[in-house]
Design goal:
flat; two-stranded antiparallel sheet; alpha/beta
């Protein structure tokens, strides 16, 4: 039973919590920037349509293809303005980091009860590509283990 869905929008990475020390009051504090909340909400909304009635249990495979919006520099100019340049890259080899993008998706799926815990994800393929249709294609597959 493979579950697959598409999340439209510009993928956002899960920010790392930040820590600071307030010398005036002598306390260390930690805060979360929370900049991925809109993206995580979009993931939750898209996943709700195919969410199982009970949270998935056991080992899982998670495959994600993040499609990032192409910048204008990837396109030709003049009357060919809508055509890609021949040297336009296919892979998105820059920020945001793919592990932080994956973490935002996993946190959103955990929050809506898609699975018990994101620690169940054992394997999978994550990639970042340039696209004219930004978003993420997410595939969750339970791993059936053979008896020993």
């Amino acid at each position: 039973m493979t579950l697959q869905f598409f999340v439209p929008g510009i993928p956002k990475a899960q920010p790392r919590p930040r820590a600071f020390f307030n010398r005036r009051v002598g306390q260390a504090r930690v805060y979360d920037a929370g900049t991925a909340e809109g993206w995580k909400g979009a993931v939750a909304a898209a996943a709700s349509a195919c969410r199982p009635s009970r949270p998935l249990d056991g080992p899982l495979r998670l495959d994600i293809v993040f499609a990032m919006p192409r910048p204008r520099a990837h396109y030709r100019t003049g009357r060919f303005v809508n055509e890609l340049r021949p040297d336009a890259p296919q892979h998105h080899a820059q920020k945001p980091d793919r592990d932080n993008l994956e973490k935002a998706v996993m946190d959103a799926l955990t929050q809506i009860g898609f699975w018990r815990d994101d620690g169940q994800v054992c394997t999978g393929f994550v990639s970042k590509v340039w696209s004219d249709r930004p978003g993420a294609t997410i595939t969750v597959t339970p791993i059936l283990e053979a008896p020993r």
